[in-house]
Amino acid sequence: MKIFKFGGASVNSVDRIKNLKSIVASHQQERLVIIISAMGKTTNGLEKVADAYFKGNKEEALQLFNVVKNQHLTTAKYLLVLQYNECVQQLNDFFTEVEWLLHDKPVRNYDYYYDQIVCTGELFSTCIISHFLKEEKINNQWLDVRDLLRTDNNFRDAGVQFDFSASRIKAAIEEFNGHITITQGFIGATDDNESTTLGREGSDYTAAIFANILDATELTIWKDVEGVMNADPKSYPDAQLIKELNFNEVIEMAYYGAQVIHPKTIKPLQNKNIPLLVKCFLDPSLKGTIIHHKHVKNLPPIIVNKEHQVLMHLKTKDFSFIGEEPMSILYQIFSEIKVKPNLIQTGAISLQLCLDDHEEKIAMLAEKCSHLFDVQIEKMLTLITIRHYNEEIISHLLTNRQILLQQKTKETIQTIYRTQ
Ligand code: ASP
Ligand code: MG
Q1: Measured on CA atoms in the order 255, 381, 241, 25, is the torsion positive or negative?
Q2: Which CATH number, 3.10.180.10, 3.90.1570.10, 3.10.20.30, 3.40.1160.10, labels domain 2-292?
Q3: Fewer CB within 10 Å, N or C, the chain?
Q4: What digits encode the pLDDT tens for the residues 196-221?
Q5: Looking at the whole model, is its pTM more than 0.70?
Q6: Annotated domain spans of the chain
Q7: How close is the Cα of 211 to the center of ligand 1, in Å?
């Protein structure tokens, strides 16, 4: 059994869906579960629908939803002939559910409505792709993952109930005689049948859960890049492909903010020692990157850039030392407002925190800290993390930067500088 995951970019046009088909066609003889995201920017579009609806702008919400609807109907029209009517019937059922919801006034919290609306992107995309594969004589079963993946009701960041989901998933795959199953990433449902989502970019995680539960031989994530690079090629033109990585290295990279793979993806794979392949859907003949348990030597420097950073300077009001007491209060505040500093530097009477610039959270944190400390905030900063650094890369990347703070371990150097 193999698991494939196709992200939004790999299904964002008629041509790309045809490309997906040719990749799947060359694996028709294998048992395959294919996890698919919403097409292109659909999730962002649906987020706007949810926002408008919750703000009470019903007409705007319906209009925005209409745009999403038409995009999918157009794609279906280009791809389907024989399967067209059946596909549109199924799409219409999904559309109607959302439209009913949009007609009523919101009585529950935002996150609940977000999930009921945003989850449909994956239902639309998989519905069209499953019908298209059938049209192309690639037999497959389409499953609504909400019948299989049981979660808690922590909407927008739902926690998966593994045991229950495992028995459902195994049954659904085992009952099926054919080879190919198509289902959605990113979404699930509670035991009350309310839809949930697992957090943005969560489809990788769904794919890893399926791989774990089905004891897959491997998981392949199909992307528009050659594989995992040692830096973002958009900012570093000489970024290079890393052919082989250890699970732990990828966890570190994700922790520091590399947008390689959803951070939760690795654990389910690592627990069962299932290799993860990151491959390019534009040229499947390329080998891509293999991520597995083996120790990998001689990695190139790996660069992770985080922009929109804030440095919060905290200083005790009466020049007293920062001992365990204020420290523990500070950590309590982090957990209360759910912030996680990207870097902390402590001194005798002062402390510096580097954080993502989420305006609301920063304001809340500053307010709470101001009872204990004098607070100063610097904005417009970049945090650059370099793993496996050497002198050459440091001087290449950091010369002429206005450096505010730097921390170094044997493996990793982190530097905060003013964004130019
Ligand atoms: N469609 C969702 C998103 O854009 C999930 C995913 O793509 O993994 O965040
Ligand atoms: Mg995506």
Answers
A1: positive
A2: 3.40.1160.10
A3: C
A4: 999 999 999 999 999 999 999 999 99
A5: yes
A6: 2-292, 302-418
A7: 18
